[in-house]
Amino acid sequence: MIKKLDVVAAIIECDGKILLAQRPAHADQAGLWEFAGGKVEPGETQPQALIRELREELGIDATPGVYIDSHPRDGNGRAL
């Protein structure tokens, strides 16, 4: 059975530059670049999860802006 994950990500833009983070060496898909974000925890909404992840990863307090898209896909034996 494929484990389903609900994940969120933020596109953070300032002065025409977009913030990306490089995945650490110990992580799945190490070395790849990604937008800040992460998994939605049980009982959380997607906006709540994004606010929490940005606080944890970047130390910033953010307000989610425009919702862009959902993109279901399979990856590494998981449905994202």
Topology:
Blueprint: E1 3-4, E2 7-10, E3 13-14, E4 17-18, E5 21-22, E6 33-34, E7 36-39, H1 46-58, E8 74-75, E9 78-79
GO molecular function: 8-oxo-7,8-dihydrodeoxyguanosine triphosphate pyrophosphatase activity; 8-oxo-7,8-dihydroguanosine triphosphate pyrophosphatase activity; 8-oxo-dGDP phosphatase activity; 8-oxo-GDP phosphatase activity
GO biological process, one term: DNA repair
InterPro entries: MutT-like (IPR047127), Nudix_hydrolase (IPR020476), NUDIX_hydrolase-like_dom_sf (IPR015797), NUDIX_hydrolase_CS (IPR020084), NUDIX_hydrolase_dom (IPR000086)
How does the major sheet shape up?
3 strands, mixed
Strand fraction equals 25-35%
- Overall, the morphology is globular
Question: How many structural domains does the protein architecture include?
Answer: 1
The CATH architecture comes to Alpha-Beta Complex
Q: What's the average pLDDT? A: 88
Strand order of the largest sheet: 1-9-8
Q: Pairing-aware structural class of the strands and helices? A: alpha+beta
Please write the string of helix (H) and strand (E) elements: EEEEEEEHEE
Helix content: 10-25%
Distance from N terminus to C terminus (CA atoms, Å) equals: 14 Å
Residue stretches low in confidence (pLDDT < 50, at least 5 long) are none
Q: Please, what is the CATH homologous superfamily?
A: Nucleoside Triphosphate Pyrophosphohydrolase
